[in-house]
Amino acid sequence: MITTILCALGLTYAGMASLSLAMDRHHGQVFGRDAAPSVRRALQLAGSVLLALAIWPCVAGWSATVGVVAWLGFLSAGALAVALLLPYAPQLLFRSSLLAAVAALAGLAILLQ
User: Fold this and answer.
1) Burial of 110 by CB count in 10 Å (0-12 exposed, 13-18 middle, 19+ buried)?
2) Spatial distance between the Cα atoms of 20 and 26, rounded to a whole number of angstroms
């Protein structure tokens, strides 16, 4: 159960961070320059895929109805974490979202076994 929660939270956090870094304003906060159009599209795609993947451990850990509601809660928690971290530590946001994505995808691979 704890693996399910951590996996879903990591995926939603990384997905929301990716979507926020696709915006020029936030990309500029982290990297000091606006995002190229191809980078912006790649970040949007990665964020969307990570958020879509986050529903999988929720539905697998709980039933479909409870899993969708839990997924919506994790979406809110991931967005809140990004919103609180981005203004104060944008470099930490980038690094922690990469770590969260890798750890959550590893957790997802463990849940598949």
Assistant:
1) exposed
2) 6
Take residue 14 and report the two structure tokens written for it: 């990384």
Q: DSSP characters for 55-90? A: HHHHHHHS-HHHHHHHHHHHHHHHHHHHHHHTTT-H
List, for residues 62-101, the tens digit of each pLDDT value.
989 999 999 999 999 999 999 999 989 988 999 999 999 9
To the question of pTM greater than 0.90 for the whole model, the response is yes
Q: Alpha-carbon distance 8 to 77, whole Å? A: 10
Tell me the per-residue pLDDT of 22-66, one tens digit each, with 9 for 90 and over.
Answer: 998 999 888 988 889 999 999 999 999 999 999 999 999 898 999
Q: How far apart are the first and last CA of the chain?
A: 14
**How far is 53 from 27, CA to CA, in rounded Å?**
23
